[in-house]
Amino acid sequence: MRILVVGASGTIGGAVVAELAARHDIVRAGRRGADVQVDIEKPETITAMYARLGRVDAVVAAAGRVHFGPLAEMTDAKLRIGIDSKLLGQLNLVLLGLDHVADGGSFTLTSGILSEVPVLHCAGTSLANGAIEAFVRGAAPEMPRGLRLNVVSPTVLTESMPKYGPSFRGFEPAPAARVALAYSRSVEGVQTGQVFKVH
Ligand SMILES: NC(=O)c1ccc[n+]([C@@H]2O[C@H](COP(=O)([O-])OP(=O)(O)OC[C@H]3O[C@@H](n4cnc5c(N)ncnc54)[C@H](OP(=O)(O)O)[C@@H]3O)[C@@H](O)[C@H]2O)c1
After folding, report:
1. 30-51 in b/e burial notation, b at 16+ Cβ within 10 A?
2. Which atom of ligand 1 is closest in space to residue 9's alpha carbon?
3. Residue 137 near residue 149, CB atoms below 8 Å
4. What atom of ligand 1 comes closest to residue 41's alpha carbon?
5. 142-169: pLDDT as tens digits
6. Which of 4, 5, 9, 96 to mutate to test the pocket of ligand 1 (most atoms within 8 A of CB)?
7. Is 107 in a helix, a strand, or coil?
8. Considering the chain, what is the average pLDDT of its residues?
């Protein structure tokens, strides 16, 4: 398969590439230094990326910003960071990519455990994650040409504990290589409309 991985240089994206590259042709995407440049917060760059790429068999999205901060200091603008980036950025990869993925191909998005479990100062992330999962459940049955749509919901990654550890005391982190297996199941399996939880 020819697989587009958006966020390929990241903690999750890098592990997904490592898992899939032995069996597939990987196109790495990101804002900088990738095979193809894209900023998922700018829909016109998504359109341009797909036009340059031609057909792919699968799209994996492991990118998207969110705002961390106390609810008392939350504003419309801060909430919109996750909505515009992690939520709409990934959804636009689906909507603008529908005509560019081969029959029977797949889209795999990324949410996270915060859709279900509250963590201090993460309400904006919970919102984005929950909305991504709801969209996947709602949209998968309408996908054309046998296209599949899933989302992976990881817990905090072992590799990210130095950064996020203080917010996730008592959580069992998952190594990126294990999280990457959920993306493999989505891309290389047959299921659709699924939230593949790694927690
Ligand atoms: N790490 C965790 O513990 C964890 C757990 C659950 C969920 N998640 C979610 O998984 C996603 C990826 O997390 P991560 O830890 O792997 O992040 P990361 O290490 O910071 O990597 C982010 C990747 O996305 C790319 N990227 C960032 N903004 C982009 C944009 N606007 N357009 C296109 N590409 C962009 C980056 O490359 P460029 O900078 O070159 O664009 C990089 O390749 C996030 O949405 C995060 O919320 C992470």
Report:
1. bbeebebebbbbeeebbeebbe
2. 43
3. no
4. 31
5. 999 999 999 999 999 999 999 999 999 9
6. 9
7. strand
8. 98
| Global pTM exceeds 0.90 | yes
Of ligand 1's listed atoms, the one at least distance from the Cα of 10 is 21
DSSP 60-90: EE---------GGG--HHHHHHHIIIIIHHH
Atom of ligand 1 nearest to the CA of 64: 45
Pairing of strands 148-154, 2-6: unpaired
Written as one letter, the residue type at 92 is N
Residue 176 is encoded by which pair of tokens? 């990126």
* Residue 26 pLDDT class (50, 70, 90 cuts): very high
Residues at CB less than 6 angstroms from ligand 1 = 6-13, 30-32, 38-41, 62-64, 66, 85-86, 89, 110, 112, 154, 156-157, 160, 164
Q: Which helix (H) or strand (E) holds 139?
A: helix 123-139
Contact predicate 98/147, CB 8 Å? yes
Burial class (CB in 10 A: 0-12, 13-18, 19+), 74: middle
Average the pLDDT over 22-29 and give the result.
Answer: 98
Nearest CA to ligand 1 atom 24: 7
List pLDDT tens digits, range 76-93.
999 999 999 999 999 999
Amino acid at 64: G
